[in-house]
Amino acid sequence: MKKVWCLAVLLFLLVSSVSGLSAKKTVINYWTHTDDNRTRIENRYIAEFEKMNPNVEIKRVVNEASKMGDIVLTAFAANNGPDIFNLPIEQEYGYIYNQRVAAVDYQSLGYKNLAALQADYAPNTFEPVTMNKKIYGLPLEL
Fold first, then answer.
1. Are the beta carbons of 15 and 26 closer than 8 angstroms?
2. Which residues pair with 134 in a beta bridge?
């Protein structure tokens, strides 16, 4: 159940952090890699999310998995990175260390604090993406 809702939670988190949610449509750029099984699930949840939030458009950009690291790196170097992206964990450390990504907002996810979020996952799930007692990513698949 957690992996099914992960994308929806990420999208909610991002939308809740966007300033002002006015009448102007908010566009969220989500970059991912090719995966036929996940594509069906993600497209379904994106459609549901957009229906619940008509002022939000999710632009799902799919790239070849082997090229994602270079594509994201190039985009961030030009200060034009996506709002949400997924990479293998070993490619994410630089973004976390250099503070190019935001920490998870626990309350936007419905959690009181870090401990409450961690309690819903297997032990040490967040260890690779935790720095200074803040989590900088959520699992895409479990």
1. yes
2. 131
